[in-house]
Design goal:
The longest helix is centred in the N-terminal third of the chain and has 27 residues, at about 5-30. The termini are far apart. Helix 1 packs antiparallel against helix 5 (about 105-120), helix 2 (about 35-55) packs antiparallel against helix 4 (about 75-90) and helix 4 (about 75-90) runs antiparallel to helix 5. This protein has about 230 residues and is of the alpha+beta class. The protein has helices spanning about 5-30, 35-55, 60-65, 75-90, 105-120, 125-150, 165-175, 210-220, and strands at about 95, 100, 150-160, 180-190, 195-205, 225-229. The radius of gyration is 26 Å and the shape is elongated. Helix content is about 60%, strand content about 20%. The strands form 2 sheets. It has a 4-stranded antiparallel β-sheet with strand order 4-5-3-6. A two-stranded antiparallel sheet has the order 1-2.
């Protein structure tokens, strides 16, 4: 392997790591499960596997041809395993919590980051840069659009000592256009008094997320917010 070819490989690895790191910085800024280091390593590892798959067995081919043997190797065999192997890492970022699946976007980002790393490993820098820009557009610019017009799932738990307050809270949410996916009502009896604990799964417009909590606290005096996620 010539020094010029080695320098080219190092440049490919460097480009893959930088592009993966840029995507990882955005995920880290959003406090997601996989951040800078994970995306950096995924892109770097994918580029290494791509280079190894393409050039790692050149010496073996040279030796076998010199001995009169006709040996053929599939240059995509190692790179193809990266596509399926990255699924194990992506699965680790997906969390099923309270009937809601979280982490799918981060898992998809790792998958695309792996593809970008492989693209850099193949020396297709323009394609890799364009893909990185499109990923950042999807994660950041579209995120601003979704904040204004999109919906998000919210888990709310509140308590009250009056069943009428529960009805009023539910009626208020429905009148505000909040979709109630499910709710659970528990009655806690302490001596002669009762306390009602309500757990809700809501679909709320993202721009109404914060106002939901404050309006409930201001308009419903008997309602105490326990948690909101």
């Amino acid at each position: 392997m010539t020094a010029q070819l080695t320098t080219e490989f190092i440049l490919r690895l460097f480009a893959a790591a930088i592009m993966g790191g840029v995507i990882g910085m955005e995920r880290g800024y959003r406090a997601k499960e996989a951040g800078f280091r994970t995306h950096f390593l995924v892109a770097l590892g994918s580029a290494i596997f791509m280079i190894l798959s393409q050039y790692g067995f050149e010496s073996l081919l040279t030796q076998t041809r010199a001995s009169g043997l006709n040996v053929r190797l599939d240059p995509s065999r190692i790179a193809a395993q990266v596509v399926s192997g990255i699924g194990f890492i992506g699965a680790g970022t997906i969390i099923f919590q309270k009937h809601v699946v979280r982490g799918l976007t981060t898992a998809a980002g790792l998958w695309v980051t792996s593809a970008i790393g492989m693209t850099c490993g193949a020396g297709l820098y323009t394609l890799a840069i364009a893909s990185t820009v499109m990923v950042l557009i999807c994660l950041e610019i579209l995120n601003l659009f979704m904040k204004k017009f999109g919906m998000r799932n919210v888990s709310v738990t509140f308590s009250t000592d009056s069943i009428n307050d529960v009805r009023q809270a539910l009626d208020k949410m429905r009148s505000d256009g909040i979709a109630i996916d499910s709710y659970n009502l528990r009655e806690m009896v302490e001596g002669t008094s009762s306390n009602y604990v309500v757990s809700l799964e809501l679909n709320v417009k993202r721009n109404k997320y914060e106002s939901l909590v404050f309006s409930m606290m201001e308009e419903l005096d008997g309602v105490k917010i326990e948690s909101i996620e």
